[in-house]
Amino acid sequence: MKSKVFGGLVLAGILTATGSACSQKPAALAEVPELSGMWSGVLNGAIEDMFCDWGWCTDVGRERLADLLDDATNDERPTIQLFGEAALYQIEHYVVPRLTPAGRATLGVDPADDPGFLLCEPWGFSRQIFAPHQLQITQLKDRVELHYGTWDARRTVWLDKHAAPRSAAVEPSGLGFSVGHYDGETLVVETSGIAANFAPWGWDWSSRFIDGKHSAELNATERYTRSEDRDRLLLTVTLNDPWSMSEPLVLKRVWSAAPNEQIYPDKDCERPHDFIKGSAAQ
Known about the structure:
Elements: E1 5-7, E2 37-40, E3 44-46, H1 47-51, H2 59-70, H3 79-95, H4 101-105, H5 115-118, H6 125-128, E4 135-139, E5 143-148, E6 154-158, E7 177-183, E8 186-192, E9 197-198, E10 213-214, E11 219-226, E12 232-240, E13 249-257
């Protein structure tokens, strides 16, 4: 496959303010993998990593993108167009075949029906973990804190589940209840107790982070590790929901180290007054 480096892609909302330094891991955690710090968009580097930055990707999608890049007839096509084609391919050839009839019936959600758009409601788990913008990780002795630039959302991964507030593991919630452990160089997170919600299964590189739904049976295994050059944070998520999936989905996400970026409180969401529905069918 021909080597191609991608730089200078500008997408609405992907550029963020700078200012704070990376978080430092306490000395007591020297034996665990160093994941703490600020991570953000892959603006330069391997084009395949860029594809896995603005939302989720799959191995099927990456392979399709590689084939498109190898095809000389695509040399003059915009890279963003190739991303879109590879994204649609992975939806049609990987995601949809793994959905149950009930899951497939929920595809085709009109973005105008998104509660985040209509009501300024933060996203649920299955969308939040793939959200654009920054992810700040803080590793502590008994837990790992995840802070997202999108919606200013926060999650706690309990390394000692007995240290978690009792209520956190009882009632289903938007982001669920997460426990984790270290496996060599990887942080492994198991999440359950996720309330039924909209999903990003039909995401297609068109800035739509909604399509499909999952039930309250959804559970996930997240694996966070760093690339060999230490400059990338790699996430592989195995999602399972017997109601919407006939077999688990394995989705991926990539961030770059961004020690000078900062997350600001999300205070700018305004409920729309004038909009046109039906864009999902266009």
